[in-house]
C-alpha cells in the first residue's frame, strides 16, 4: 500500500518537473535576448554622434528652416542633434552654452556667432579640445573653425542695392542728381557680425556713385521686438527719410497693422529693400511696403551644414572652408510663386 503511495507521488511530481524544465529552457534564451538587446541599445547610444547647432537666438524665426532641415538630416544619418541657444541674442549667454557643450564633449558644433575676441577664444578652446567647430549664417573667420556655410553676404548687399536702383528707375526717381540726395537709413543687428557688415559693404559700394546717402545706422541687437520698436520710433521722428535698407528681416515677422508708421511711410513713397525672404516678408512686399527682397537658403545651411560636419567626423572628409549657399530674389514678377513656395512657419 505504501509502495503504491510512493509511486503515485512520483507520477504526480515528475510531470511538474518536466514542464518546469521545459519552460525554463524556453525562458532563458528569451531573457538572454532581452539582455543582449538592452546591451546593444546602450552601445548604439554611446556610439551615436552628437552635433550641436547654436543659432544666435531662438526668438528669430529665420533659423526655423535650418532647424527643420538639420533635424531631417540628423534622422537620416542617425545623428543626435541638439539645437540650443539663448531665447534672445546675448553674447555672454551664447558663449556659456558653447562652454557647456565643450564640457560635455560633444562631437561637433555648428554656430552662428560674431567675429569678436570672446567668440574666437571659445571656438579655439573647443577646437583645441578635439571638438570640430563650423559656423553657419554668421562667421568667425579669425577663429580655428573648420568651415563656414552661408551666402556670399557682400553679393547679397549688392543684390539689395540693385533691386533698389531698379525700383527707383522704374518709378522715375532720380538717383544721380547730386543736388537732391536720397536720405537713407540702414537697420542692422550688431556691429562685429561679419555677415551683416559685409551686406552693408556690398550695398554701400553699389550705391557709391549715386545720390543715395546713408545718414543713419541703427542697431537692433538682433532682437525682433526691439527692431519693431526702433523702426516705428525712427519713422515717427524722421518721416522725411527716403530709403531704408534692412540688413536682415527682423521687423518683417509682424503684420502691416503692427507697423503703422512704416506702413504710412511706405504708402507715401518711401522705398524699403531688405535681406531675408519668408512668407510674412513676402506679404509686406505684395502690399507694396517692401520693394525688393533678397533671400538666403537657410534650409541648405541646416541640411548641408550637418552633413558636412558628419562626413568630417565619420570619414575624415575635409569640406571646403567656405560652402556657399544660394540667393533668392523676390520681385514683382515672381511674388505669387514665392508665396506658394514659402509657406507660413508652424511650430511642429
Outline the structure in words.
The N terminus is likely disordered. The chain folds into 2 domains: 124 residues, Response regulator (Rossmann fold, 3-Layer(aba) Sandwich); 144 residues, 3-Layer(aba) Sandwich (Rossmann fold). The relative contact order is 0.12. The chain contains 11 helices and 12 strands. The strands form 2 sheets. Strands 2-1-3-4-5-11 form a 6-stranded parallel β-sheet, sandwiched between helices. Strands 7-6-8-9-10-12 form a 6-stranded mixed β-sheet, with helices on both faces. The longest helix is centred in the first third of the chain and has 46 residues. The protein has 348 residues and is α/β, with parallel strands linked by helices. Helix 2 runs parallel beside helix 10, helix 5 packs parallel to helix 6 and helix 7 crosses helix 8.
CATH class category name of the largest domain: Alpha Beta
- Helices and strands: which structural class? alpha/beta
CATH superfamily of the largest domain: Response regulator
Main β sheet profile? 6 strands, parallel
Q: How are the strands of the biggest sheet laid out side by side?
A: 2-1-3-4-5-11
The total strand number stands at 12
Q: Share of helix among residues?
A: 40-55%
Low-confidence stretches: 1-31, 37-45
SSE arrangement, N to C: HEHEHEHEEHEHEHEHEHEHEEH
The quaternary organization reads as: single chain
CATH topology of the largest domain, which one?
Answer: Rossmann fold
